[in-house]
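Before going further, learn to read the protein records used in this course. The integers have meaning only within a learned vocabulary of local backbone shapes. The record below shows the convention in full.
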Amino acid sequence: MKKLFTIAAFAVLGITSVNAQEVNFGAKAGVNFATITGDDTDGIDSKTGFHVGAVAEIMISEKFSIQPELVYSSQGAKDSETETETFNGETVFFKSEAKRKSDYINLPIMAKFYVADGFSLEAGPQVGFLVNSEAELEYTESYEGETYSEKETVDLKDFTSSIDFGVNFGLGYKLDNGLNFGARYNLGLSNINDGEGSDNFKNQNSVIQVSVGFFF
């Protein structure tokens, strides 16, 4: 997989040095709908996050371009569980919630094909470098009109792989003034778990991104 990204990077440099007609630089930001797939993920819900970064669109021809990006992306997932029980005629409400927050610096290289004026389809590989990973745990108990809650944050960076590989598929629309919109799905290919026993317990990132950007 590392060789694939190295070859892709050199291929982009080689193509653009010969055929590039125009290079546009810009920025993008948007919302993430992230979750985690793989082993033991029943009941896992998506977590809302954000992404922000810089892009460069290298026009190879009128219909085709290469777009490398540098994007900070907040990902992860969440899991919640509620339970109600009755003791001595009183109803007791329990709720537990766990949020896994993993932040990455992602480097996608997207191939874009313009199928109509301003409208493009895109696909390409991505490598992500882990910045931070933690779990936020919250427990709430309500009984006889009283509410008790407890919060805890657990550092997961030592148990999360420092590099994440994936592939992106998406579409975009660009206006003549540089304003652009995009929707993308990031399919994680590598195991995000690290440490002892991680080979027997595999999970992957899964992220839907909706973006707005501007080319200067």
Summary: The longest helix spans residues 2-19. The first strand starts at residue 22 and ends at 38.
